[in-house]
Design a protein that fits this description.
Blueprint (H helix, E strand, L loop, with lengths): L1 H24 L3 E5 L5 E5 H41 L22
Antiparallel strand pairs: 1-2
Length: 106
């Protein structure tokens, strides 16, 4: 387990080193042109970092609603399961399975 943790650390260290070198190489100012002749000048690496963070934030926000819906559904189903089948106690024999009433075709 320690070897895997060390290899993971080395991987993250390599990613960090590549990002630092990328940031050092891209310090020239870049200009973003918006509508109505608005412009914004900032270092390229800063613009890219802001874009990445904004994308990550929007992605998390987009995942919140489905995640909350799934959690509510799971809670509802667990509650329904508890109401349907009471848990047998240790001294009680298990109940036989029953089939639902199905009308015969004959």
């Amino acid at each position: 387990m320690a070897v895997l943790r060390f290899l993971s650390f080395l991987g993250w260290l390599a990613v960090f080193a590549v990002l630092v070198v990328f940031a050092i190489k891209n310090t020239e100012p870049a200009t973003l042109h918006f509508y109505f002749d608005r412009t914004w000048q900032a270092p390229l690496v800063f613009i890219m970092a802001v874009s990445f963070v904004a994308g990550a934030v929007f992605g998390v926000i987009a995942c919140i609603a489905p995640l909350a819906r799934q959690r509510r559904e799971i809670a509802r189903l667990e509650k329904e399961l508890r109401v349907r089948e009471p848990v047998p106690t240790a001294g009680e024999p298990p109940r036989p399975a029953t089939l639902p009433d199905v009308p015969s075709l004959s």
